[in-house]
Structure to design on (334 residues):
């Protein structure tokens, strides 16, 4: 590296330690070692990108005239870089667009770092209005990263930033990028621990990853006044239904019983429970609707009551809920 003097004096390194794998424990609410994958989450659209020497002026200098840009100088051989970068990405996503992150591999593009006098990595430099204004060196704790981003990007509209981060998490989840979704939910909770949408989102990811205990622990962190919020109630209902289904056994047995006797409502009911646990929502609803149609009074209207519990677990806007509710209304009121 160059011996040029770093701009603005020393940045002040940190001895903070980072986990080497993505953990659902950044908030302290979930078990310490729950991971959904070993790969680092990918860049998130325009908020995070890699740059080159040739593109540095456009990606950093020009872009910083519109909003603050953080530049992460790193290298593949740098252990602390591997600790810092995922946490930095997570914090930038959670900031909801207050800052952008540009990453530069100094092995491939050493000249910019040399010109800035960077002599050790990881190094993060913040640019505003085309000029470097602040920075730090070393892997620092997640809380300090969030403070740095707030200092550089300003507090802005906290509610809007959280809403944008939640939208990004849900978008990542719908795209199948579960790890990135988990990272964003966890980052939101690190900054706004009473955000019930993030509690529900991360809790559901934990549950789907097989960590029911972790999901329960996370649900317990919800503020007392919000513990019965619909998004949290839906997750609790989903977990309860799965626990019931797990005790029922092999669905093939219930299918055999129904083939022999289509009026075996208990077999159809139990099969619906298992289908729901498998994610076969339409089939589960149809089996309960078949019971309601054949014998509304069976088990003290138990099929309808169970269908309503399904609706609660699936969510009022879920397509399966809407379709089954229309069928139920047709049965009850036609």
């Amino acid at each position: 590296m160059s011996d040029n003097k770093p701009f603005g004096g020393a940045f002040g390194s940190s001895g903070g330690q980072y986990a080497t794998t993505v953990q659902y424990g950044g908030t302290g609410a979930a078990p310490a070692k729950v991971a959904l994958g070993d790969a680092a989450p990918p860049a998130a659209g325009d908020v995070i990108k890699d740059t080159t020497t040739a593109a540095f002026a456009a990606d950093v200098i020009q872009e910083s005239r519109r909003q603050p840009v953080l530049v992460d100088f790193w290298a593949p051989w740098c252990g602390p870089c591997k600790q810092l970068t995922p946490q930095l990405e997570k914090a930038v996503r959670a900031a909801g667009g207050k800052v952008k992150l540009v990453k530069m591999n100094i092995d491939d593009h050493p000249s910019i770092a040399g010109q800035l006098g960077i002599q050790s990595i990881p190094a993060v430099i913040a640019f505003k209005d085309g000029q470097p204004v602040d920075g730090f060196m070393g892997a620092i704790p997640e809380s300090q990263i969030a403070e740095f981003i707030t200092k550089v990007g300003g507090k802005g509209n906290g509610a809007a930033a959280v809403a944008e981060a939640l939208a990004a998490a849900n978008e990542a989840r719908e795209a199948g990028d579960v790890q990135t979704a988990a990272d964003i939910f966890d980052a939101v909770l690190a900054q706004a621990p009473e955000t019930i949408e993030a509690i529900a989102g991360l809790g559901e990811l934990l549950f789907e990853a097989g960590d029911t205990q972790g999901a329960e622990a996370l649900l317990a962190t919800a503020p007392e006044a919000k513990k019965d919020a619909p998004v949290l109630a839906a997750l609790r209902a989903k977990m309860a239904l799965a626990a019931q289904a797990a005790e029922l056994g092999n669905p093939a047995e219930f299918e055999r019983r129904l083939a022999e006797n289509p009026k075996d409502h208990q077999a159809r009911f139990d099969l619906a429970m298992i289908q729901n646990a498998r994610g076969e929502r339409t089939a589960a609803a149809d089996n309960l609707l078949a019971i309601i149609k054949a014998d509304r009074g069976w088990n003290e209207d138990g099929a309808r009551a169970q269908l309503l519990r399904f609706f609660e677990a699936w969510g009022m806007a879920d397509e399966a809920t809407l379709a089954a509710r229309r069928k139920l209304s047709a049965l009850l009121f036609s």
Confidence is low (pLDDT under 50) at residues 1-45.
